[in-house]
Amino acid sequence: MAKPLVFVEHHEGEPAKGSLGVLAKAASLGGDVAAAVVGPGARAVGEGLGAHGAGTVHAAEGPALESPLPQPRVDVLARLVADGGYDTVLFAASVLAADVAAGLAARLEAGLNWDLVDLELRDGDTLVGRRPALGDTVLVDVGWKETPRIALFRSGAFEPGAGDGAAAEVLDAPEEVEEFSTATAMLEQAHEESSGPSIEDADVIVAGGRGLGEAAKFALLEELAKALGGAVAATRAVVDAGWYPYAAQVGQTGKSVSPKLYVACGISGAIQHKVGMQSSGTVVAINKDANAPIFEYADLAVVGDLHEIVPKLTELVRERRG
User: Fold this and answer.
1) SS3 helix, strand, coil % of the chain, rounded to 5?
2) Where in the chain is the domain with CATH 3.40.50.1220?
3) pTM of the entire predicted model
C-alpha cells in the first residue's frame, strides 16, 4: 500500500481546485493520505482538507516561505519525505508545482512522471499512472522503478470530492530552508485583474478562435461568458496573434480544462486544441464552415456566422436568467 503525500497549492487562503482533485484521487486509493501546505495561511487551509480526504496535514508558513518560490518548498517536502517515510508525492499541474516537482525529483534522485491523467493501485501495492501519448490519441501505462515516486497530474484530471467530513490532524512541518534556497528573492508579484473565474475552475467556458476575425470581437465572447457566469478562453493561434492573454490559452501547449459546458466560437478544431478541452461535459461549436473538424466531437453543432449568433445567444441567456 502506497503512503502518499499530496502537495496542496493555495492562493489567498483558498486551496487550488486541481490540488483538491489530486487529494480526492489519492484518498480513493485507500490508506492514510497526507497533505503538505506551504506558505502564508497554510494552517488555516490545512484545517479544511479533512473534508477532501486528508488524514494528516503538514503545514509550514515560516518567513522564508512567504514568497511563492519553488526551492524553499522543495526543502520542506524533502524533509517531510525523509522524516515521514512517504513513498509517493503527488502534484496538480501548475507553474509552481512543476518547478517544485522537478526540484524535488532532482534533490531525491527520484523518478518523475508528468502529464498524468489517472493513477491506479494494482496487485495491492503497485502504483501505475496513465499518460496521454501520440497527440492524446492513446493512453499509456507508466510506472516507477523505485521510491519515492513523484507524479504531476494534468490540469482538470480529477474533480474535487468530499471525504467523510472528519477533521484532519494539522501538524507543523519543518520550516528551515537550505542556504542556497535563499539566493533568490521575489521583488514584485503582479496579479492579473479578473472579473470572473479562471478557465481551470470555470463550469462554463466560451472560447474563441481565428474565426472571430480580430481581437476586438472577443468582447462578444466576454458578454456571453458574463451572462453564463463563465470564463473566456482562446486558441493558440489567437494568443500568438496577441488577441488574448496567454493565460487563457486552451490546448496542447496551453491549459487543459474540463468545464460542464464548452462553447467554441470560430474554432476549427485542430487536434492540438481538442487535447485541452476534450474532457468537457457538453461541447457547443459555432462555425460558418460546415466541414470544420470541431463538429466531429461537438455535442451541438451550429453552422452560421458567430457575429450574429453570439449576440442573440447572449440576449436569450439574459432574458432567461432575468
Assistant:
1) 35, 25, 40
2) 204-321
3) 0.80
pLDDT, averaged across the chain: 91
Question: What cell was used for 14?
Answer: 483558498
| Structural contact between residues 282 and 206, judged by C-beta atoms closer than 8 angstroms | no
Maximum C-alpha span of the chain: 62
Lookup result for grid cell 491506479: 120
pLDDT bucket at 256, cuts 50 / 70 / 90: confident
- If one looks up domain 204-321 in CATH, what number appears? 3.40.50.1220
DSSP state of 255: B
User: 247, 160, 259: which is closest to 202 by C-alpha?
Assistant: 259
Cell numbers for 191: 496579479
Residues 68 and 189: beta-carbon distance below 8 Å:
yes
Q: Buried (b) or exposed (e) across 133-142, using 16+ Cβ within 10 A?
A: eeebeeeeeb
Q: CATH code for 4-182?
A: 3.40.50.620
End-to-end Cα separation, the chain, in angstroms: 53
CA-closest candidate to residue 95, choices 115, 119, 70: 70
Four-residue CA torsion sign, 24, 29, 30, 33: negative
Sign, Cα dihedral of 309, 312, 318, 321: negative
Sequence-separated (6 or more) residues with CB below 8 Å from residue 197:
203, 230, 231
Measured in whole angstroms, the distance separating CA 221 from the mean position of its chain's CA atoms is: 23
**Which residue intervals of the chain bear CATH 3.40.50.620?**
4-182
C-alpha cell at 206: 466560451
Question: Which DSSP letter does residue 306 get?
Answer: H
Amino acid symbol at 77: L
